[in-house]
Design a protein that fits this description.
Layout lengths: L9 E11 L12 E12 L12 H15 L3 E5 L5 H12 L5 E3 L5 H18 L3 E10 L2 E6 L2
Parallel strand pairs: 1-3, 3-4
Antiparallel strand pairs: 1-2, 2-5, 5-6
Length: 150
């Protein structure tokens, strides 16, 4: 088989719904609101397996999808320092409903969320034998942030 290590990568897309707010934002994003997020993960950095695959798409769907479902889907993403009582009320309600809020060390901007995804998912994917090369996180159909491996 031809050498594909440096030329082949795969992409897998994940979508979920989450609320967030950007405390201190100068516009509407200072209010709690929701998005239909989409993350497109690029994986590679390995020799293809005996079938010519970088990794089975189903394995990626199960591992990454399960993490997103458990941590980000149908909940809220907040800055752990956000002391607004309305944030506390959402956190309490979501916990009661079995969907704990997800906390970041700073405002949950698209840029910070894509960095968090790379921090969490990179090691998980490495355990599967693939390298996370990039992530594009869509916050809206028109706005996204990208993380790329150095």
């Amino acid at each position: 088989m031809e050498r594909l290590l440096d030329t082949v990568s795969i992409w897998r897309r994940f979508e979920w719904d989450s609320a967030h707010r950007i405390a201190g934002h100068e516009g509407a994003c200072k209010a709690i609101h929701g998005h239909r997020y989409a993350a497109e993960l690029e994986l590679g950095g390995v020799e293809p397996d005996r079938l010519g695959r970088v990794i089975d798409f189903g394995v990626v769907k199960r591992v990454v999808g399960d993490w997103i479902l458990a941590n980000l889907d149908h909940t809220a993403i907040f800055d752990r320092r956000d002391a607004d009582p309305r944030v506390g009320a959402v956190v309490a309600l979501n916990a009661e409903m079995g969907k704990p809020a997800y906390f970041l060390d700073g405002p949950p901007t698209a840029e910070r969320i894509v960095l968090e995804l790379s921090r969490v998912l990179g090691p998980m994917l490495a355990e599967l034998g693939v390298t996370l090369l990039s992530i594009r996180l869509w916050e809206t159909p028109n706005c996204s942030a990208v993380w790329r491996r150095d």
